[in-house]
Each structure stands twice: as C-alpha cells, then as structure tokens.
C-alpha cells in the first residue's frame, strides 16, 4: 500500500505540472476566463493531494484500515474531482460539454473532505 500511495502521488504531481503547462499555453486560447480558472483549480487540487499522498506514503505504515481508507479517499477523490473538472472544461470549450461529469466533481470533493476528516481523526486517535 505504501508504494501504491507514493506512486499515485508522484503520478498526480507529474500530471499536475504537465496539465498546468498545457492549460497555461495550449488551452489559454480556447478557454474563457471561467474555464481557465476551473482548470487551474483542478491542477492545484491535484498537486496538493499528490504531494499529500507522497508525504503520507513516507509517514504512515498503512497497518490499519483507517490509514488505507484515508489514502483511497485522497486517491479516488483527486481522480474524480480534478479529472472531472478537466473534462468539463475541455468539452465545454469545444461546445459539447459532458454534463454527466457535473455531479462527479462534488463527489470527488466529498471524498477529499472525507480523507481529510479521516486524517484528522487518525491524529486525534493518537492523542486520546
């Protein structure tokens, strides 16, 4: 599990830099201001959570179900949140917005919130 978390974190970081550069240069011409901001939000959240996964991979043993659950929340939450934003922005710029992705974004956000709540709980559990 440790290696999976680190590999996914590194992949998310790599893709965040790639997508950020792609958005800043190639997509800037075809996106409106709102789409560009949304795309940047997806990239930021992807990078934040990619870095978090790497840190967690070095600091947690993933010996408990709680630690695994929080990692899965971050992995799948980032995937659903950021990549649905990318899909909405790209398809919207082409005039064929994939509306089915609209509800996916908040689901990803809910998983990210759950991951943070579980991480918080894991810290409180150690104190108590």
Automatic annotation (TrEMBL):
It comes from Muriicola jejuensis. Pfam families: DUF423 (PF04241). Keywords: Membrane, Transmembrane, Transmembrane helix. This is DUF423 domain-containing protein. Belongs to the UPF0382 family. Signal peptide: none annotated. The chain crosses the membrane at residues 6-27, 47-63, 69-88, 100-124. InterPro entries: DUF423. It comes from the Bacteria. GO terms for cellular component: plasma membrane. It is found in: Membrane. It is a multi-pass membrane protein.
